[in-house]
From TrEMBL:
It comes from the Bacteria. This is Riboflavin biosynthesis protein. It catalyses: riboflavin + ATP = FMN + ADP + H(+); FMN + ATP + H(+) = FAD + diphosphate. Belongs to the ribF family. Catalyzes the phosphorylation of riboflavin to FMN followed by the adenylation of FMN to FAD. Pathway: Cofactor biosynthesis; FAD biosynthesis; FAD from FMN: step 1/1; Cofactor biosynthesis; FMN biosynthesis; FMN from riboflavin (ATP route): step 1/1. InterPro entries: FAD_synthase, Riboflavin_kinase, Riboflavin_kinase_bac, Riboflavin_kinase_bac/euk, Riboflavin_kinase_dom_sf, Rossmann-like_a/b/a_fold. Keywords: ATP-binding, FAD, Flavoprotein, FMN, Kinase, Multifunctional enzyme, Nucleotide-binding, Nucleotidyltransferase, Transferase. One of its GO terms (molecular function) is FMN adenylyltransferase activity. It comes from Crenobacter oryzisoli.
C-alpha cells in the first residue's frame, strides 16, 4: 500500500483507479466491508484500489470549539488500512477552509477526474461532499468519466456500524460493543513521555503516553494489554485528567504494566482497552488514591487471568 500526501505524483494512476472516499476513522467493520467490495470491483476492472481520506478530520475544521473525539490517529489509521491488504493507494488530502469551499462540481472535476483519474467510485449511502454538502450520489452518477455505486449500511448485531456509534459505545464504557463494531479491542498508541514521576514514589510506576488529540473517545480506569518492545503485557490504565494530583484540563493516558521494569521513555506503545473498571474520581489524599490503585490493579490482574484461562 503506497501513501500519497496530496494528489499522486509520477505515473501512480495513469490509467485510473477504483476509488472510495471517507474519513475511515477507526476502520470499523463497515469500512472493512467497503474496502472488500472496492477491492473486488478494482480487480474486476483491472484497476488499482484507492482511498481518498482527509487530515485533519473535516469536523475538526468546522467544529473547532467542540470537535468529535478522534478514534484513531492518522498513523494508526494507515496501519489498520494496510493490515486489511485491500488497498494499493491511499491519498491523504489536507482538509482546510479553501478545500472545503470547493463546489461539488469543482471537486469532481479537479480531484476525482483530473488528479486521481477515477474510473470507478464506491461511496457510502449517505455520502455528501463539496461546499455546503451540495454534492450527492445523483450528481456523481451523472458524471460520464467514472461509474458510481453506493454501498449500503453494514449491520453488526443489528445496529449500523459507524464511527459515531463506536464513539458512543466508548464514551458509555461499553467496550464489548465497541469491539464488535471494530472487529478488535479499541486501542490507542503513542510515545512514552516524561511525566510527574509520582507513580514510582507510591509503588505504581506508570508509562505516560502522549495523546496526539486533545479529546479521547473514552475516559476512566481500564484493564489493558500493551504492545511494546517487551512484547505484550497486561496492565491497568488511567485515561483522564487525574484530578487528585493535577488541576489541568488536559487528558493523560497513564499505564501501569505488570511485571515490567524496562526503561520505556521514547518507546511507542499500543494500548488495547479490554474492560472498564470505573470512572475517574478525586481523592482527598495520596493514601486513599494508593488504596484505590491497589484495588484496580488486583481487579485487572483477576480479569487478565480469567481471560488467559478462556483462551487456553
Amino acid at each position: 500500500m503506497q501513501v500519497f500526501f496530496g494528489p499522486p505524483h509520477g505515473d501512480a494512476v495513469p490509467h485510473g483507479c477504483a476509488l472510495t472516499i471517507g474519513n475511515f476513522d477507526g476502520v470499523h467493520h463497515g469500512h472493512q466491508k467497503m474496502l472488500a467490495r472496492l477491492s473486488d470491483a478494482a480487480r474486476a476492472r483491472h484497476l488499482p484500489a484507492a482511498l481518498l481520506t482527509f487530515e485533519p478530520h473535516p469536523r475538526e475544521v468546522f467544529a473547532r470549539g467542540n470537535p468529535p473525539a478522534r478514534l484513531s490517529t492518522l498513523r494508526d489509521k494507515l496501519a489498520f488500512l494496510e493490515a486489511q491488504h485491500l488497498l494499493d493507494y491511499v491519498f491523504v488530502f489536507r482538509f482546510n477552509r479553501p478545500f472545503a469551499s470547493l463546489t461539488a462540481e469543482a471537486f469532481i472535476r479537479q480531484v476525482l477526474v483530473e488528479e486521481l483519474h477515477t474510473r470507478y467510485l464506491l461511496i457510502g449511502d449517505d455520502f455528501q461532499f463539496g461546499a455546503k454538502r451540495q454534492g450527492n450520489f445523483e450528481l456523481l452518477a451523472s458524471c460520464p468519466d467514472f461509474v458510481t455505486e453506493a454501498m449500503p449500511s453494514v449491520l453488526v448485531a443489528g445496529e449500523r456500524a459507524s464511527s459515531t456509534r463506536v464513539r458512543e459505545c466508548l464514551a458509555g464504557g461499553d467496550l464489548a460493543a465497541a469491539e464488535r463494531l471494530l472487529g478488535r479491542p479499541y486501542q490507542l498508541s503513542g510515545r512514552v513521555m516524561h511525566g510527574q514521576k509520582l507513580g514510582r514514589t507510591i509503588g505504581f510506576p506508570t508509562a505516560n503516553i502522549h495523546l496526539p488529540h486533545r479529546k479521547p473517545p473514552l475516559h476512566g480506569v481500564f484493564v489493558v494489554e500493551v504492545d511494546g518492545p517487551f512484547g505484550r503485557k497486561g496492565g491497568v490504565a488511567s485515561l483522564g485528567q487525574n484530578p487528585t494530583v493535577t488541576d489541568t484540563l488536559n487528558f493523560k493516558l497513564e499505564v501501569h504494566l505488570f511485571d515490567c521494569s524496562a526503561d520505556l521513555y521514547g518507546q511507542r506503545l499500543t494500548v488495547h482497552f479490554l474492560k472498564k473498571l470505573r470512572d475517574e474520581a478525586r481523592y482527598d489524599d495520596l493514601t486513599e488514591l494508593v488504596a484505590q490503585i491497589e484495588r484496580d490493579a488486583a481487579s485487572a490482574q483477576t480479569y487478565l487471568t480469567s481471560l488467559q484461562r478462556e483462551n487456553a
